[in-house]
Amino acid sequence: MSHVRIEGLTKRFAGKPPAVAVDDLSLEIEPGEFIVLLGPSGCGKTTTLRCLAGLETPDEGRISLGDQMVLDVRGKVNLPPNKRRIGMVFQSYALWPHMTVRRNIGYPLRTRRVAREQARRRIDEAAELVDCAALLDRYPAQLSGGQQQRVALARGLAAQPDLVLFDEPLSNLDARLRDQVRAQLHELHARLGFTAVFVTHDQSEALALGDRLAIMKAGRIEQLDTPERVFEEPATEYVAGFIGMSNRLPLRRQGTGWILAGGPGTNEQTGEASSSGGASRPVADELPVPRSHSEIAVRLRPDDLRLCPAEEKPPAHGVALAAEVVDAQFGGRHMDVVVAIADSRLHAQAPLTGKPWARSLARGQRVTAWFAKDAAL
Ligand code: ADP
Ligand code: MG
Q1: Is the ipTM of this complex over 0.90?
Q2: Which of 129, 161, 181, 367 is at a distance of 20 to 30 A from 147, taking alpha carbons?
Q3: How does pLDDT run across 76-119, given as a tens digit for each residue?
Q4: Of 47, 48, 56, 57, best ligand 1 pocket probe by most atoms within 8 Å of the beta carbon
Q5: How many structural domains does the chain have?
Q6: Are 257 and 111 in the same domain?
Q7: Ligand 2 centroid vs 44 CA: distance in angstroms?
Q8: What angle do CA 237, 239, 244 make, to 5 degrees?
Q9: 200 lines ligand 1 (CB under 6 A)
Q10: 252 and 237 belong to one structural domain
């Protein structure tokens, strides 16, 4: 376990125009910490990992692992991968097809010239850890996808590295297996306490695994925080959108209250003016928003936007909006509903437990949508 320090890491790729894949990125990782890099495709996650591993030649920056400086561009230090105590697990498993499981797991030990007896013991231990002990004499082609990924995991851990890098290691597994291997990885980390940098574009994976999340955008870290804080208090609209607050409702101050901002409410589908409320119709008397704000955009997760019959009043702490159902799909314990509110389309998740009313929601139906006033904070 090591303290990892990344300072001013920059990697450009030649091209027209040149791509800045990693842009002056700094990050400190505590020993034993599980850091998740979360962001959309192309934001520089893989390149950051490859720089950590020594597989890229960065243009700027320094990286230290414990007391070892593995990269210092100005100081002309860039240790090759086998001189860094780093393990790697990739999306594609990247197992050697012509090697048995035993030889695959042992590969990083051979490149580090670990003595034979010690290597044998480490391979057995690593295979044991991920339940692969019975598979050691097989070839990758004789394994299922889940087994291959567990072998890749064992290989990443076998050399007892200071730092383990994961590049979307679960994304090739089907949904059920993905949950299984994810839980196994979470438990393994709790048990062994290795330091990890885990890359994903999947927000639920990030929230489940990370001690801290680094939300990346265009080669930079947009927010670095615990999963709880990223989820509850996203620092920017970009982070909010990425972490599942898919709804955006613009409001404008009018007199002492608030109205829907934007043009008059029209229904996109029919082009008719919708009766679901025009721009001048007040939606809330007061909201817990600082006086200095005259316009706000309320960000809401689908399960924060509630629905009730048009004739019903929501509770006093709620802000009510006239809405029309555009689409309603059965989702098991809830309905996934798209509603039109003035000229905004919003997603609501209406629970079905104890509320069979929601099951009958259908296109064209007028309903009341509401959210808690706190959500405007
Ligand atoms: P992510 O893993 O987040 O999807 P990458 O690190 O793979 O992102 O890529 C970041 C950016 O760098 C992208 O714009 C990508 O096109 C570019 N890039 C990555 N690798 C190369 C390469 N070998 N040559 C040129 N451009 C690259
Ligand atoms: Mg990638």
Answers
A1: yes
A2: 161
A3: 999 999 899 999 998 877 899 999 999 999 999 998 888 999 99
A4: 47
A5: 2
A6: no
A7: 7
A8: 100
A9: no
A10: no
The span from the CA of 145 to the CA of 92, in Å, is 10
Mutate to test the pocket of ligand 1, among 13, 59, 215 (most ligand atoms within 8 A of CB): 13
Task: Judge contact between 9 and 220, C-beta under 8 A.
Answer: no
Ligand 1 atom 7 nearest Cα:
46
Q: Is the CB of 47 under 6 A from ligand 1?
A: yes
Is residue 226 located within the same domain as residue 279? no
Q: Is the CB of residue 223 below 6 angstroms from any atom belonging to ligand 1? A: no
Distances in whole angstroms, Cα of residue 104 to Cα of each of 97, 181, 356: 9, 19, 54
Residue 225 is part of a domain; what is its CATH number?
Answer: 3.40.50.300
Which residue, by CA, sits nearest to atom 10 of ligand 1?
44
Residue 9 CB partners (closer than 8 Å, separation 6+): 22, 24, 25, 26, 48, 51, 58, 60, 61, 62, 63
CB distance 42 to ligand 1 below 6 Å: yes
Tell me, yes or no, whether 109 and 140 share the same domain. Answer: yes
Distance 96 CA to ligand 1 centre (A): 25
Q: How far, in Å, are 71, 84, 85, 87, 120 from residue 108 at the CA level? A: 20, 11, 10, 8, 12
CA of 299 to the centre of ligand 1 (A): 31
- From CA 309, how far away is CA 315, in angstroms rounded? 13
| 16 CB near ligand 1 (under 6 Å) | no
User: Does residue 95 sit in the same domain as residue 176?
Assistant: yes
- Which among 26-40, 129-143, 184-198 has the top mean pLDDT? 26-40
Which residue is listed with tokens 């090739």?
A: 172
CATH number of the domain bearing residue 266: 2.40.50.100
Domain extent, residue 8, equals 4-242
Q: How far, in whole angstroms, is CA 129 from its chain's centroid? A: 26
Same-domain status, 173 and 272: no
Cα 56 to ligand 1 centroid, rounded to whole Å: 11
Instruction: Note the pLDDT tens digit of each residue in 128-169.
Output: 888 899 999 999 999 998 899 889 999 999 988 889 999 999
Q: Please check whether residues 218 and 277 belong to one and the same domain.
A: no
